[in-house]
């Protein structure tokens, strides 16, 4: 009887150790596996972050596959009425991080006809100063933050005082 109890006790100990060891480790932040688990989707064709010359390339590849630019485009359409059309081109630049729990997306809106005209002017050899180019393109930008749960916000840009501007106390 003692031997049978010892065998049963040993079996339970071994079984519990196997269950503890069988628990999956949480994937390390900043890995493809982390984002696969977070977004419950398979991510294909994205190399480990260390194989990219710029970490932003890694985060952009992940963001595209999990739909972050699409969410940003939907957000600026809903809040500002921005929508891609025959006359308007939208572009998104995504910033990710293995430390932050959100995505930063800069959404740019360009006037297509102005861009086409500038391309023709450049092809004809006309020089266009940078400031004039921005005006002609009709470029606007909005910053969108999308956290890992999908919550969207539009951080306000802080107004910076010009250098040399002081308040009543003489501080910048």
Tell me about this structure:
- With 172 residues, this protein is an alpha+beta fold.
- Helices cover 43% and strands 16% of the residues.
- A 4-stranded antiparallel β-sheet has the order 1-2-3-4.
- The longest helix has 21 residues, at 2-22.
- The chain is elongated, with a radius of gyration of 26 Å.
- The model is unreliable at 168-172 (pLDDT under 50).
Q: Which structural class is indicated by helix and strand composition? A: alpha+beta
Tell me the fraction of residues in β-strands, as a range.
Answer: 15-25%
The coarse silhouette is elongated
Distance between the ends: 85 Å
Write a brief structural summary.
The chain has 172 residues and is α+β, with helices and mostly antiparallel strands.
Descriptive tags:
single chain; 172 residues; alpha+beta; four-stranded antiparallel β-sheet; 4 strands; elongated
Protein topology:
Layout: H1 2-22, H2 32-39, H3 55-66, H4 68-80, E1 88-95, E2 102-111, H5 112-123, H6 130-137, E3 140-147, E4 152-153
Antiparallel strand pairs: 1-2, 2-3, 3-4
